Amino acid sequence: MYSIYHFFADLHRKRHFFKSVAKLEDFPYDTELLSCSSSGKFPDMAIRVNPSANPTGGELIELKDSKHFTVSSFSSTIPTGQKSIDSIVAGETNTIRQQMQQAGDDVFSVPTREVYYLIRGKKQENLKVCLVHGSFFETIRAEELIRQAFSQVLIERLSETNQKLNADIQDLLVQVFSKQESFSKVRDVASASVKLRFRIMTEVKQEGNILNSRRYPEIVNNTLNLLIPQHSSSDIEIINHHISSAFGQIELTKSNQLTLKHPLNGQFYVLQFAI
After folding, report:
1. pLDDT of 254 above 90
2. Could you tell me if 107 and 187 lie in one domain?
3. Domain span including residue 76
4. Is residue 73 located within the same domain as residue 157?
5. CA–CA dist 168, 44 (Å, integer)
6. What is the pLDDT of residues 91-105, one digit of tens each?
């Protein structure tokens, strides 16, 4: 069985390595659980799929390492809770697609993948490690985030230059530039000796900094944490069932299970172990 729960159970068994490995990439992950690994390109890792089972597996994982209790910037993709596999493995020669197929995955059997971020932060002799669902950071859709940010830029430039645009044209421009793909492509301009690519960088605000002790005191020093959205009591039953299957009841007696309130995006179930 492959799932994010089994991945977290493996992290738990090896959690002492979080204190010694120089980079999160150096952690001794269980490669049998993984269908791909791709440093520097989203996702850093993906869990194998078992499409006929529940859970289906196939979760995508991005690594975020920091020397402070601040989540490092997202430089490759805007954080999200789910991602279409089509947007990641397009093309027969795509290296991630090839790795997944070589691992035996039916790549498109799970078309929408859950996204998790493995975050490690350090402060003096203390550290915090969180495997957190991407919806913790995606409180509005990526397209809406880009749209509103571009709208701010457009309004600022119009104000600075004392120019005006028809409201319909302004709305159209904002809508046109609401896709991240518009910025990520390399632009080749005639007569230029360089190519140009705009890059979107995403930084967490206080509400998104899971490592901030004042904002989220539940995440205490020297702990390993799993955070999953908790929308209803039925969610808790499902989560507990999957966790019990991956861990066993004996190990869970050593854990701390609690609920964390996100100020912008509801409640999150937290499974916490001391490191």
Report:
1. no
2. no
3. 4-137+202-274
4. no
5. 41
6. 766 899 999 999 999
